[in-house]
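Budget justification aside, the reviewers requested a transparent look at the raw inputs and outputs of the sequence design task funded under Objective 1. We therefore reproduce one unedited record. The lines immediately below are the structure tokens for a 267-residue chain.
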């Protein structure tokens, strides 16, 4: 099994390992802005500009609130196990977290997705990868891989789909775009795992929407930029499979079950 990451009883509690990088960057921007505006405000004599006190107080208030939020967010504890705690980075689509890779079964390569729902309500998800080098040979001959499944509330699981690989690409590293789509039919509910991943673009629903997304590059609109990762493709696998690519979904852990003693053994 090969996984490549971006270069880039439920009453128990689990340590929140790290804050999302995007959140840290946003908080840093707020802190820097507060210091800059507040600093400039303190340089302006209040006797000439009485209204400058609003900027002085506002800058201090924003700085204090930013630091307070950072401290609070850094100390939050997950309400469910973080099955991706051994990964420095993973992908996400608005509460649906996952990693992508490949595995081989009966000489057939299978596109493999390990996933976890960060909310306490179920969602329908689709994950797709396709070559980032669609105009270069032989990478352009790599078919897209896609798998759709239901992710239970807070659940951790695995979904796979058959992925035929051209002979000339087997055993090679390829750069792929990673996209996903998710839908919480009854709303997302309560967040129960807090560490978020690298946001990905939206997977197209059909050939028509894919074409519109491509044309959108020239029209100024798009469906969200795809994240990218590098995959090492297996060798000695089938270059062709059936028209109906078999999909399998396995829920490894459900909300309310005892936490595994070793998270790395199941993720």
């Amino acid at each position: 099994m090969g996984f490549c990451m971006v270069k880039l009883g439920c009453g128990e509690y689990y340590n929140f390992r790290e804050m999302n990088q995007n959140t840290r960057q946003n908080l840093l921007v707020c802190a820097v802005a507060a210091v800059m505006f507040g600093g400039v405000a303190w340089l302006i004599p209040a006797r000439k500009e009485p209204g400058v006190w609003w900027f002085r107080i506002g800058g201090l208030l924003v700085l204090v609130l930013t630091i307070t939020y950072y401290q609070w967010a850094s100390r939050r504890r997950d309400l469910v196990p973080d099955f991706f705690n051994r990964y420095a980075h993973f992908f996400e689509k608005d509460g649906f977290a996952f990693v992508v890779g490949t595995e081989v079964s009966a000489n057939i390569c299978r596109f493999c997705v390990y996933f976890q729902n960060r909310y306490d309500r179920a969602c329908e998800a689709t994950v797709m990868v396709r070559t980032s080098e669609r105009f270069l040979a032989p990478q352009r001959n790599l078919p897209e891989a896609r798998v759709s499944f239901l992710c239970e509330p807070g659940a951790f699981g695995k979904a796979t789909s058959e992925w035929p690989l051209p002979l000339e690409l087997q055993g090679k590293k390829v750069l792929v775009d990673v996209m996903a789509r998710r839908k919480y039919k009854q709303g997302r509910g309560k967040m129960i795992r807090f560490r978020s991943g690298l946001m990905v673009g939206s997977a197209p629903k059909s050939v028509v929407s894919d074409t519109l997304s491509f044309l959108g590059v020239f029209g100024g609109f798009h469906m969200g930029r795809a994240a990218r990762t590098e995959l090492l493709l297996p060798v000695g696998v089938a270059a062709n499979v059936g028209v109906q690519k078999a999909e399998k979904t396995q829920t490894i852990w459900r909300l309310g079950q005892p936490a595994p003693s070793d998270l790395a053994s199941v993720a």
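Helices lie at 21-43, 52-74, 207-219. The longest strand covers residues 173-183. Computational costs for records of this kind are itemized in the attached budget.
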